[in-house]
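The freezer alarm interrupted the setup, so I double-checked each line after restarting. Inputs confirmed:
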Amino acid sequence: MTSLSAYLSHMLRAEWIRSFFLVKTKPLTKPAYFMDYPIDTGKRCTHCFSCMMICPVPDAISVLMVGETEGEDIWKPVLYQGHCIRCGLCVEICPERVLASGDIIERVRQDSTYMQSTFHILVNEGKCAGCGTCSIACPVNKEIDPILASKGTTTSDEVIMRVKAGVMRVLHEEKCTGCKTCVLHCSYQAMDVARVIECLQYESDDETSATNEGG
Amino acid sequence: MTEIPEAFSFSHTKQPSGGVHDGVVTDVLCPFCGCLCDDIKVTVTAGTITGVENACTLGAQKFLADTGRLPKPIRRDEDGWHEISYDEAIEYCVEILKNANRPLLYGWSSSLTEAQAIGVHIAELIGGVIDSTSTVCHGPSILAIQEVGHPGCTLGQVKNRADVIVYWGANPTDAHPRHMSRYSTYVDAYFMHNSFRDRKIIVVDVRRTATADIADEFLQITPGGDYALASALRAIVRGRDDVVPAEVSGISKVQMMQVAEMLKNAKFGAVFFGLGVAMTRGKYKNVRNAIELVDELNRFTKCTITAMRGHWNVYGSNEVFTWISGYPYGIDYSRGIAYYNPGETTSADLLARREVDAAVIVGSDVGAHFPRACCEHLASIPTVLIDPYPSATTHLSTVQIPTAVNGIDAEPGTAYRMDGIPLQTRQVLPCTTHFTDYEIFSRIYARLKEEKGA
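Predicted 3D structure, all chains:
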């Protein structure tokens, strides 16, 4: 009873009532470093598949051909929000700045950072059944050999990989963009793409190029 | 190969025809599974296959590991196996077929349709039973199709149009490795952008197979639960989900509703079913229910159903037998007319009842796959095995006649893909040592006609 009267006497003061109804707190804003799902900046995607390569989550982002204009294909990174963990790596690596989230692009520009990557495709021949799924699903192969994409029949040795003598053979590892489509769709778990990614900073002499790089 | 030739003289060496000694043969038809991939490129160096492109491991091994063929026909007597000539082997075969009361001609799924056709004529001539491997495979599926029809399509339609694909009781990843990369899931569709990203894959199986790993929706049913699940899905599709309990065959109603919705909203659905549906409890009734589910779905969208035929030309055997006799397998000519009653006139039943008194097994390994009682009976009667390679069935046989391998060194002929498309085989290698099954059956038929005075 004593505490209740103490509360009432405290809250019924004119000063308390005034400060309660006329609060001067600043409205909440998202801090600059807050990362939401990446958004499309409208810039032209060159389907280099870097975003798919760097994405740490299976099936969170796919670069798809969404249509065509004046005879030219339009590509876009399509995000699957249920899978995306909002790490922002796709935004950071995209050389064309097609995606944006928080102040990632700004910070990349300020810090003059960039990423360099090399890939190594590993095929476990003991597990591979030569079904050809990886070579047909591969977005780079699809462009090099359209017959492979539409019929499942390899007609070119210019592709990254193809089936020979019943197992997958890697022919042009240097064309691999590390997108991991082959790894995700191999039902035998016979494929692996080792991705070596270095996060580097331009030297001060290179700052001009860094600015260009940053778009 | 349209007419049955006069009797050959089998005493001389076979004249080589077709095939290459050195070079590359393109558009070769794979001689392994029911996919009949017809884009194989085979390299031949000094009469040996040295390279195979586009084929999966199963198909490539058929070409590259083509070793251990029987060089000549063999016959067993008290001292063991002895080589004999083709003429002697064929005479033995004619002798046992001529004198038999209940001869059985079984196998045929690795034979060309041309050879299968002669097989039916032989069965009719001797009043025997002719049966193909579908009797132990998709036989129940054919019974279901006879009951309710077959809303099917070619694999090309699936490839170019299907946006929802169901594999029910089938594991194409292991059994038909190129099915998904050539005919369904991964290959680009003519009528879709980004087809393999847009296609939805539903897998129904009792265990988590390799195919289930890449599925969008996996329904792990309890063994034998196919019929109940198909019934539940039919009810949901018909708008009677109120009668469906919370769980059917281990699948929750929520998931069934979701799958039914996916199927109804598909632009083009394609259901592929394997022996997990056709050979589990319920057998042809399971397949009938699955066909009727597809029938229901066609009230909302386009949907088709196709059996995942395993043996190479097994579809051809059903086609050939049907167009000659009216029945797809298990055809009994003992009454002088074609009679068909699965369970009575099918190989396993005939052998288990010990009715058969002479058997010719064509390109099939009965010894490895039939019940023990059937194998015991086969071992106790004159049995001729017509197969290029020694197998478990060799041990049950009295005579084995090796043939050229169809699709490798046999002359070109016709084989049917799992969707009923007839394709022409290619001859890769020249053959001088072995006769084809077509030539052997032509000879047997001609000799039997002479003997019977037909």
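Quick read of the result. The first strand of chain B starts at residue 23 and ends at 28.
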